[in-house]
Every structure is written in structure tokens, then in C-alpha cells.
Design a protein that fits this description.
Length: 389
């Protein structure tokens, strides 16, 4: 299955483009599922149908689905209470009834990720189009599986599970209760689920697509989105320039906006594969309007980007890690080596990445940002590096 993740700044028309892309694919005979998570059902409004917890047929070969975060949250927390019953009773805690549970912040994101995973692993559809939240929230959503798995590994290391038989003894010696079996089982189950989501995001049949309206605000949003995606090892397959005004507009008042859009489009052309979508003169509603939008096809190459390590030991005595960061500014860049991990911060964006195995036996010798690429130099640590190399 192909998966197309569509995002853009708020108000850019990303939900409309997602709906139009899905509809165009469906009209070509592709079994398509379009997935959204907007509480206001913007996706359904564009398609002219009401979407909800149950998938609904929006057109021939096209299904729309908006997962119910409330039900998912209630089911998860109820199951958690069942597994933690003994611990809750020990603490004297009263259980919460499903009817009184209200989803906490982040429940929508987790529900969307779970639905994305389930849909991508099914064999019912040929194409999955995901209407992600606005760019800042979408970037946090794409980072969530990796970050949560990292937290789980730090809080409940897998190697500690080897001492299951010793935990009662250790608990008596330490005088404090040790983590129960259900806690490790729950962490393991979450890790498997998150790993499945990560696999979908990293799959070569998954692509990220940006939608923005050409102009100063759109240019700033695209720069930030491109940089944040690059920090995650992703790049958009193309950039949809939405609501492009015609060059031949006779109204003199439109001359300024047209010129402004043209300037932004020229700037984008140097970095992205830009696909303009003309302004219809009104907000698209229903399948007829969506069909009138000349959206690019859903066929796309994967969005993952390699971070190669160049072996320059023979020439300069160093290994160089190349990390593409287009649009990064040196003054906004910060690097910290912590054990076998590297903390990379670029402006408001931050990621903690594990070092490749060869670099773990090295020390950082310096770094430079050149032509949109971060190059970090590592020198072998004599105490850790294999002899004879």
C-alpha cells in the first residue's frame, strides 16, 4: 500500500488538497482511504459527507474515516486499570468508570497514529491519504513514536526483564516494591505498537507532502516545516502551492498579490518540486469542486533521507557524519554529545538520535554547516577503536 501524509500551515487548504488527491486517485480506480482527525470535520466538509468513528463511503472506491479519540482513550485506560488492579488496590485508588473519562491532550494524536498503522497494514486499500494536523502539530505527531519508544527504553530497560525471578527478592532487600510483570508487559506491547507506526513512516511507499499558500507567511511556514522534517530524516516529495491566482487577472487590485505569489513560487522552485493549484474563486465544497482542482497525482517516492557516514580515516584520520538540514542557520544550531546519543537542536526543533555503531567508539572533533548540510567530524578513541584500523 502507498501512504501519503499531507500537512501544511493552518488555513493553507491542506484538508481540501488531501480530499481532492484521494478523490482523484479513487476516480482512477484506486481503492483509497482518506484519514482525518480534525474535530471540526474539515475533511468531511470538503468531501460533502459526514465522517466519524465508522468509515463512510464518500465516492466510488473512496472511503473516509475520522477515528474516535474518545472511545479509543476510554478503551485504553479501562484496559490499563484492569491490568493494574492489584497496584491500584494497594494504593487505595478508586477506579474510573468509562463514562466519566474525558480524553487528555494527545489522545487525538495517538488515535490517529493507531488508525494510520491499522489502515497501512490492511489489504483492503491500495492508497492511504492522511490529512495530518497543521504543520507544527503534524511534526510533533511524526516524532511521537520515536520519542515514546525512547522514554520506554529509559524508564523500563529491556535488560531488567531478565531478572524477573529475582524481583520479589530484590523488593524485600530494597524495602520498596519492584515493577510488576504487567508493567513490563504493557511497556512491551506499547513498544511493539509504536515500532509498527515507525515502520509505516519509514517505509519506502510512504511520502510526506506539503501544502502552502504562496506568500510571506507561507514561505516562512515551508522553511520551518522543511527544516523540521529534515531533522527527522524526512523530506517532502513535493510542495503543493495552493490557491494560486491567475497571472492574467484584470483587476488592478490583484496585481500586488499576484506579484507576491510569483516571487514566492520562484523561491520555492529552487528547493522543491512545486505543483501550483489554481484558486477556484471560492472555497471548494463537494466532489465537483474537488475534481476541478488540478492536484498532483498520489504516486510519490519515499520521504526518508539517508544520513551517511563518510570514511576519511586514510586521508584525514576522521569519520564524517553528513546530516542534511536545508534552511538551517548556524546561530540557531546546537549540538550535544551524551553517551551514545547526539542531541541536535535547530531553532525550536530538537531531536535525540543514537550514534551509528562506528561513531560510538569515537570522540567529536568538530562540526560545520555548509550548503544546508551539517557535517560532524569524529576521531577514533584509541581505547575503544579496534587495533590495526
Amino acid at each position: 500500500m502507498r501512504t501519503l501524509l499531507i500537512t501544511g500551515p493552518g488555513g493553507s487548504g491542506r484538508s481540501t488538497i488531501a480530499a481532492a488527491t484521494a478523490l482523484a486517485a479513487a476516480r482512477e480506480g484506486t481503492r483509497t482511504l482518506v484519514l482525518g482527525a480534525d474535530r471540526a470535520d474539515t475533511l468531511g466538509a470538503a468531501l460533502g459527507v459526514v465522517t466519524g468513528a465508522a468509515p463512510v463511503e464518500a465516492a466510488e472506491h473512496l472511503t473516509a474515516w475520522r477515528p474516535d479519540a474518545t472511545e479509543s482513550f476510554r478503551a485504553d485506560l479501562t484496559a490499563f486499570q484492569e491490568r493494574a488492579a492489584s497496584a491500584l488496590e494497594l494504593l487505595g485508588a478508586a477506579r474510573l468508570d468509562a463514562e466519566e473519562l474525558t480524553p487528555l491532550p494527545g489522545a487525538e494524536e495517538l488515535a490517529l497514529l493507531r488508525a494510520l498503522r491499522d489502515a497501512a497494514l490492511s489489504d483492503v486499500y491500495d492508497l492511504l491519504v492522511v490529512d495530518l494536523p497543521p504543520t507544527p502539530h503534524a511534526l510533533a505527531l511524526l516524532a511521537l513514536p520515536e520519542e515514546l519508544r525512547r522514554y520506554l527504553r529509559r524508564l523500563l530497560p529491556a535488560e531488567r526483564q531478565a531478572a524477573r525471578a529475582l524481583r520479589p527478592v530484590l523488593g524485600r532487600l530494597a524495602g520498596v516494591p519492584m515493577p510488576s510483570e504487567w508493567l513490563y508487559d504493557t511497556a512491551g506491547r506499547w513498544d511493539v505498537e509504536l515500532a509498527a507506526v515507525q515502520a509505516v513512516l519509514a517505509d519506502r511507499n510512504t511520502a510526506v507532502r506539503l501544502v502552502a499558500e504562496p506568500g510571506p507567511a507561507g514561505a516562512d511556514a515551508v522553511r520551518a516545516a522543511g527544516l523540521a522534517l529534515a531533522l527527522r530524516g524526512l523530506r517532502p516529495d513535493l510542495l503543493v502551492a495552493n490557491r494560486v491566482l491567475p497571472d492574467s487577472a484584470e483587476d488592478p487590485w490583484l496585481a500586488g498579490p499576484v506579484a507576491q505569489q510569483g516571487k514566492t513560487l520562484d523561491e520555492w522552485q529552487g528547493t522543491y518540486d512545486v505543483r501550483p493549484v489554481r484558486h477556484l474563486g471560492h472555497d471548494p465544497r463537494g466532489t465537483d469542486d474537488l475534481a476541478a482542482l488540478a492536484v498532483p497525482g498520489a504516486g510519490a517516492t519515499g520521504s526518508t533521507v539517508e544520513w551517511p557516514v563518510a570514511d576519511r580515516l586514510a586521508e584525514d584520520g576522521v569519520l564524517v557524519w553528513h546530516i542534511p538540514l536545508p534552511g538551517a542557520i548556524r546561530d540557531e544550531l546546537d549540538l550535544v554529545r551524551r553517551g551514545d546519543e547526539l542531541v541536535v537542536a535547530v531553532g525550536q526543533f530538537r531531536r535525540i538520535v543514537p550514534l551509528p555503531s562506528a561513531l560510538r567508539r569515537c570522540t567529536v572533533a568538530g562540526a560545520a554547516l555548509r550548503e544546508g548540510e551539517l557535517r560532524i567530524r569524529f576521531t577514533p578513541d584509541p581505547g575503544l577503536w579496534p587495533q590495526g584500523r
